[in-house]
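Let's study today's protein:

:::
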Amino acid sequence: MLLWGLNVVMLLQEPNLGFVVERVCLATSLAGNSVDVLTITAPPNEGKPMTERQGVVLSARVHPGETNGSWMMKGALHQLLANTAESKQLREQFVFKVVPMLNPDGVIVGNYRCSLAGLDLNRVWQDPDPRIQPVIRAYKEMIRVFTGEREVVLFCDMHGHSRKYGIFIYGCEKKAGKDDRPQASGWPVPGTVGGLPGVPVKCQPNVFPLMLYLNAPDLFSYRSCNFKVQKSKAGTGRVVGFRELGLVNAFTMEASFCGAAVGKYAKQHFNTGHLEDMGAALVRTLLDYWAPPETNSASDLAAQLTGTAAPGSTAVAVAAQAALGLLLDVN
């Protein structure tokens, strides 16, 4: 991973690459380590006008022992910085804010889940203390400011999971009544920012993960995703992103320490290449999610999710049915 870090620094220093990468210190940890944020996009004179580009926020290693998060992050960054048509389109359409390592103190001292102060930093998002949780405080404020600058269409924090197979997402479903109004003065209505127009409210958080499954069916398990919001998760980044910042697509992406749940890699250990491929698929899926209406499959997927699909067997419909367990021959 050290070599990868050096390569990123080299990219930052290399001129005329056709994209903009800014690296600044987001915050300083309790032990004095710099926690950096990368801003990645295309130059202002290429692609969409800068003010019209949508925002994406990615992070990893809030739990220091979950190293698979770093490998997915590596894959995402390589995709964003690649010299390909897809990567160019991503940079021209979006502004990416990326924090590769949220908890460097925990990584350095060898903690599995906690910070230097012995705290789980993914349970303090509601009111992070600037004295003992300065990184989460600064990260949350950065996202809040970012949502004021542009529409943030994805927040994803990358993790590892020790009890389930596969790679899957935890999201946030809207509860009728409870989530129909702001939960505090000055907050947006939960789950109203960054979603696709025309998609029914009850399946808004499901469409992006379902598209992700279609792009990586041998790695990602849609059927392992969970969109329930438990009380014990109220202080996590995804739930605060949903409730306090209003984000539709506020996710935790979990990669098993074991292997895939379905597909050709089922019951095999993931290797680092698999995890990198998953990170790359995550950011590529943004292009499908925000594809023009004439090529966007969101309405078909929403119909499958709500059970209102018209008879037919398009490739997208069949794949969606497999992901949802509606076919008899599902792995």
